[in-house]
């Protein structure tokens, strides 16, 4: 006898869901019984899951554990579920088995197969999920409940091989039992791990760098010969007081890689240095890990009496002496502010001093480097937060130096002394030469005489030979000394020195234009050495008259010369001067001009005869007349506009061959407002599309919009008051903020910004502070008041 239960499913709309549990699994009977259900009670087939006519599709979910903690194997689970499916008439598709490895515990995250299965359930067509036993699905009753509800929302049933279809009460009960089991398991595991420590086994799963698994069984490790060497090296380097990042860099350079052959990082080195295992100490239970509802672990330190500690001598890689030596040294904050790194890497290294505290200023940052007070930089012991572009300071110093060297009267005494020195050296050499020549002549005379028989009479032949040989050696020695005097090492030629120093001045001036001296070449090094020999100190301060740098240069006094004086003492000459580099706007304009010249040379924006003939009648004479007052080719106006569009620059930043910037601006404005430019652009688009390729002629439309200028689009004149207001507000000692200007002029912020930048560029208007230091606070207070 077959039994088909028809139950009201828990659905709000009261519809009936057929739930079949066949003891004999005969589909024909099911069909027959189904027909006995009144048609009005039948459910419209809204979803495939409700298609009670077809075969019932079920998916199987299993979970296997790698830790082997008393759980059913996957094969057993599959066997059970397959038997159950056959029993109740579920069909399991070939790809309907999902299997997750139970990784680190009991939460739902990280189970890709389960997620894939749920995605398939959502897609529809699934009637039920079969599981071996409920512990396979979720260990926590919160998780199990969530899963049950998710499946129920999809109208998918949950079946276990042992207990059949699960309902809410069963889910709750299973979940609760599982939870209890988990608690017991956790307790047992903790106990087991603690006992592992006593047996000198490693209770945690992660591999420790420096050790490999031993053949003695689970948890047993032994030092790895290669990695052991790296660990020792890390401790040795740390004992040398090298930083962790430095140690990591050294190891990576030697290709001594860390865990899983990855490069070392400072953190990884730090973990090695702090791991007591390398001392041979197994320490377990230092932290208590807890899981929150999201499945994330957090840890807190466990009390020390809960730690399990064992001493494993065979695991020690470093001894206690090395361990202690590698502990970080207690570092005291530097108060002298003298950095170790102030060495001659750059032309002015060690020469630049802070105007506030007189400490060295050091070069920081990449290119361009900046000089910053070392005291401020290291521990903020100096209030001078101002940093200076290295190129600015170098250029300023070189220019000042060149100016000094131009003044010959400054170093004339120096040169005169040099000359006197040279003369004295020359007379010394002459008198010495005279003496040597006299000596040599005497010796040579004796040598010649030795060939006389009367002189050698009564002497044996070998003695005569010896005497001659000795005299010849003396003559040779004197000849050698004379040759040395003949080519003195130091020839001081005053005229040449003047020329050299004059040449140095012009060389310095040339170098200062380039910005930096290449210290990499021998010539550069020599030149830098000569420059550094002259400079005692450089003090950069803000230039009160400009945005540039004011430099106070202390030079070795050139007029002073005393050979006995060391190079760094003696009188000093102070030279002061400012270096004002081009402002950003000037640089931008200069770059624009260069770019435009290059582009003009290529001829890409010039109008040919035919094109010009096509648009000639569209350029009104009055527009041309505006170009600088002089009547130049009307095509110049069109060309300059095309060029501005092509280069994406303001038309006023282009070369002056097209008239003055102001005249050009007015001409363009008139040309665009009159609408002729639009017509020209249309014709150009037809006649010479290459000229408009990739550019948008409508970019000039901005001049037709009302803005900060005196005219608006209607052509009637507005009182030119906004610009005046902006200038007046910015000229106040405290400056002005954008909201203040906006309130005063009624203009949008963007328009105000554009106006300010135009003021800067076009009129050379210097705006030292366009923003008030307390601007934000003022704005906030203002806003709060409103
Ligand atoms: Zn300072």
From TrEMBL:
InterPro entries the UniProt entry points to: DNA_bind_recomb_sf (IPR038109), DNA_bind_recombinase_dom (IPR011109), Resolv_N (IPR006119), Resolvase-like_N_sf (IPR036162), SSR_resolvase (IPR050639), Zn_ribbon_recom_dom (IPR025827)
Gene3D superfamilies: Putative Large Serine Recombinase, Chain B, Domain 2, Resolvase, N-terminal catalytic domain
Domain of life the protein comes from: Bacteria
The name this protein goes by in its record: Site-specific DNA recombinase
UniProt-listed PROSITE patterns: RECOMBINASE_DNA_BIND, RECOMBINASES_3
Pfam families: Recombinase (PF07508), Resolvase (PF00239), Zn_ribbon_recom (PF13408)
Entries under PANTHER family matching the protein: DNA RECOMBINASE-RELATED, DNA-INVERTASE FROM LAMBDOID PROPHAGE
Source species: Methylobacterium pseudosasicola
SMART domains with a match to the protein in the record: Resolvase
An annotated Gene Ontology molecular function: DNA binding
Residue ranges occupied by any Recombinase domain in the UniProt entry: 208-337
Signal peptide feature range: none
Domain Resolvase/invertase-type recombinase catalytic, residue spans: 57-219
């Amino acid at each position: 006898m077959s039994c088909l239960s028809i139950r009201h499913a828990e659905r709000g709309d009261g519809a009936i869901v057929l739930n079949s549990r066949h003891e004999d699994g005969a589909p024909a009977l099911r069909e027959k019984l189904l027909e006995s259900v009144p048609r009005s009670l039948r459910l419209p087939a809204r979803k495939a899951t409700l298609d009670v006519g077809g075969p019932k599709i079920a998916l199987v979910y299993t979970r296997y554990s790698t830790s082997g903690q008393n759980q059913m194997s996957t094969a057993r689970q599959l066997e059970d579920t397959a038997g159950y499916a056959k029993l109740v008439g579920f069909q399991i598709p070939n790809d309907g088995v999902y299997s997750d490895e139970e990784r680190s515990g009991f939460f739902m995250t990280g189970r890709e197969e389960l997620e894939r299965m749920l995605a398939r359930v959502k897609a529809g067509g699934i009637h039920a999920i079969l599981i071996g036993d409920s512990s396979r699905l979720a260990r926590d009753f919160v998780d199990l409940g969530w899963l049950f509800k998710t499946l129920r929302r999809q109208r998918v049933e949950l079946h276990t091989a042992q207990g059949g279809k699960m309902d809410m009460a069963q889910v709750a009960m299973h979940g609760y039992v599982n939870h209890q089991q988990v608690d017991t398991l956790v307790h047992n595991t903790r106990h087991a791990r603690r006992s592992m420590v006593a047996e000198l086994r490693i209770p945690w799963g992660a591999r420790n760098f420096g050790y490999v698994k031993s053949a003695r069984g689970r948890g047993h490790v032994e030092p790895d010969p290669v990695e052991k060497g790296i660990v020792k090296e890390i401790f040795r380097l740390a004992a040398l007081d090298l930083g962790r990042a430095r140690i990591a860099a050294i190891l990576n350079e030697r290709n001594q890689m860390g865990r899983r052959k990855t490069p070392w990082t400072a953190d990884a080195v730090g973990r090695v240095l702090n791991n007591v295992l390398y001392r041979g100490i197994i320490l377990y239970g230092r932290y208590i890990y807890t899981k929150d509802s999201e499945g994330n672990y957090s840890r807190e330190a466990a009390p020390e009496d809960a730690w399990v500690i064992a001493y494993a001598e065979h695991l020690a890689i470093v001894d206690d002496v090395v361990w202690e030596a590698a502990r970080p040294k207690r570092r005291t904050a530097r108060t002298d502010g003298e950095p170790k790194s102030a060495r001659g890497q750059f032309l002015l290294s060690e020469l630049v001093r802070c105007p506030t505290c007189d400490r060295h200023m050091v070069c920081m940052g990449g290119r361009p480097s900046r000089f910053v007070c070392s005291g401020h930089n290291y521990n903020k012991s100096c209030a001078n937060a101002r940093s200076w572009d290295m190129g600015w300071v170098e250029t300023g110093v070189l220019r000042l130096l060149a100016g000094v060297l131009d003044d010959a009267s400054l170093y004339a005494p120096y040169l005169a002394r040099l000359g006197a020195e040279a003369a004295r050296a020359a007379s010394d050499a002459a008198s010495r030469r005279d003496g040597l020549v006299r000596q040599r002549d005497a010796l040579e005379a004796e040598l010649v005489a030795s060939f006389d028989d009367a002189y050698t009479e009564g002497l044996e032949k070998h003695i005569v030979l010896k005497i001659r040989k000795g005299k010849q050696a003396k003559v040779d020695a004197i000849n050698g000394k004379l040759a040395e005097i003949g080519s003195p090492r130091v020839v001081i030629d005053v005229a040449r020195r003047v020329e050299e120093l004059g040449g140095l001045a012009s060389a310095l001036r040339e170098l200062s234009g380039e910005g930096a001296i290449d210290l990499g070449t021998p010539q550069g090094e020599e030149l830098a050495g000569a420059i550094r020999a002259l400079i005692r100190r450089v003090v950069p301060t803000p230039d009160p008259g400009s945005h540039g740098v004011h430099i106070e240069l202390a030079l070795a006094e050139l007029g002073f010369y005393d050979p006995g004086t060391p190079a760094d003492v003696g009188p000093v000459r102070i030279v002061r001067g400012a270096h004002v580099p081009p402002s950003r706007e000037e640089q931008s304009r200069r770059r624009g001009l260069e770019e435009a010249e290059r582009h003009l040379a290529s001829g890409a924006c010039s109008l040919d005869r035919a094109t010009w003939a096509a648009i000639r009648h569209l350029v009104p004479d009055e527009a041309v007349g505006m170009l600088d007052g002089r009547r130049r080719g009307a095509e110049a106006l069109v060309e300059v506009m095309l060029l501005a569009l092509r280069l994406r620059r303001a038309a006023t930043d282009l070369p002056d061959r097209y008239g003055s910037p102001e005249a050009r601006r007015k001409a363009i404005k008139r040309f665009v407002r009159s609408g002729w430019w639009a017509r020209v652009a249309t014709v150009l688009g037809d006649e010479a599309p290459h000229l408009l390729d990739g550019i948008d002629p409508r970019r000039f439309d901005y001049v037709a919009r009302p803005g900060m200028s005196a005219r608006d689009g209607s052509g009637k004149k507005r009182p030119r008051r906004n610009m005046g207001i902006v200038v007046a507000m910015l000229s106040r000692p405290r400056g002005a903020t954008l909201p203040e200007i906006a309130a005063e002029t009624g203009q949008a912020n963007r328009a105000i910004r554009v106006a300010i930048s135009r003021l800067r560029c076009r009129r050379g208007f210097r705006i030292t502070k366009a923003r008030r230091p307390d601007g934000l606070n003022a704005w906030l207070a203002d806003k709060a008041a409103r």
